Q: What sequence folds into this?
């Protein structure tokens, strides 16, 4: 039987969780989104934070997760840790990304139940959506088809955790929420061309081409796919709002409501970096999903989230940060 999420009521201010009084674990806290989330939690006075590092706590090992929760005794757990990359990395690691992402999530949900965790926030992915989804993507579309092939194993692993969250809420009363951020970008992103996503890859190629006096950069695909992007600090704010105000297993999109083609994005980044050379598209490389753009009304309705950072402003800050790392 196909999974159908339940309906939930609009949040009420009286139901707000005071995170400053909670002990919090953030998996993936040393990562890109994790850094932004920890900074926001600190700003609201959340002092009791534990950030497990993979060298000491392998989330793929259920006993390690058990020990983590037993020792940290958290009230709230944010699960950000993931094995993920761009199209190339996804193509090289389909089995690894399926197994590790599924196993980490399964371990955390089960041990959260066993340790009576007050709230578990699962950060999923819009890679879970079907390859051909009506734009804008609505949460109800998640089960309308198979994801785009290059990232399907990762997306399905994350989607399976939404089913688990619904099942554990129904049987055990575990308060688990599932959030689906669109493609993130911002300072401290991953700029490794082997594993990075599109914005940092484009920025790095443009900046390095300038440094080498090169008059051409090569980008994957044909430039026609579209994407939506969310500034990392906005996403962190959305996670906090959801942790404070949302209580339902209905998955929720987090996005900015702006759709842009890869071709237009490349020209925008070239302009903002000052790269004036030729942009050549390698059509032998995959495009990925044809279109991505989210319906973000549920996030605003359920817990009051709306993106605040303008796209061009966010890109300027990201470029400035990357340049500072090159010269630092």
A:
């Amino acid at each position: 039987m196909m999974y159908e999420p339940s309906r939930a009521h609009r949040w009420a201010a009286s139901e707000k969780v005071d995170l400053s009084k909670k002990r919090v674990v953030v998996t993936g806290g040393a990562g890109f989104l994790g850094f932004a989330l920890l900074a926001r939690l600190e700003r609201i006075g959340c002092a009791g934070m534990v950030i497990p590092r993979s060298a000491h706590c392998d989330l793929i090992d259920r006993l390690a997760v058990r020990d983590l929760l037993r020792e940290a005794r958290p009230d709230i757990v944010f699960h950000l840790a993931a094995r993920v990359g761009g199209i190339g990395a996804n193509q090289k690691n389909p089995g690894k990304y399926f197994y590790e992402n599924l196993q980490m999530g399964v371990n955390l949900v089960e041990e959260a139940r066993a340790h009576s965790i007050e709230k578990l926030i699962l950060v999923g992915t819009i890679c879970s959506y079907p390859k051909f989804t009506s734009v804008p993507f609505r949460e109800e579309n998640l089960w309308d088809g198979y994801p785009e092939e290059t990232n399907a194993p990762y997306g399905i692993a994350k989607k399976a955790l939404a089913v688990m969250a619904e099942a554990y809420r129904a049987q055990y009363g575990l308060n688990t929420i599932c959030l689906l951020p669109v493609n993130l970008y911002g300072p401290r992103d991953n700029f490794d061309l082997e594993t990075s996503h599109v914005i940092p890859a484009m920025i790095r190629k443009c900046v390095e081409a300038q440094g080498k006096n090169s008059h051409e950069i090569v980008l994957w695909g044909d430039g026609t796919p579209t994407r939506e992007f969310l500034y990392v600090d906005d996403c962190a704010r959305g996670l906090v709002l959801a942790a404070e105000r949302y209580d339902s297993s209905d998955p929720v999109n987090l996005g900015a409501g702006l759709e842009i083609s890869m071709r237009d994005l490349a020209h925008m980044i070239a302009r903002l970096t000052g790269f004036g050379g030729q942009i050549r598209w390698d059509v032998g490389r995959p495009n990925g999903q044809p279109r991505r753009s989210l319906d973000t009304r549920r996030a605003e309705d359920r817990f009051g989230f709306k993106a605040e950072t303008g796209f061009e402003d966010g890109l300027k800050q990201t470029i400035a940060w990357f340049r500072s790392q090159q010269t630092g």
In short: The CA atoms of residues 133 and 286 lie 18 Å apart.
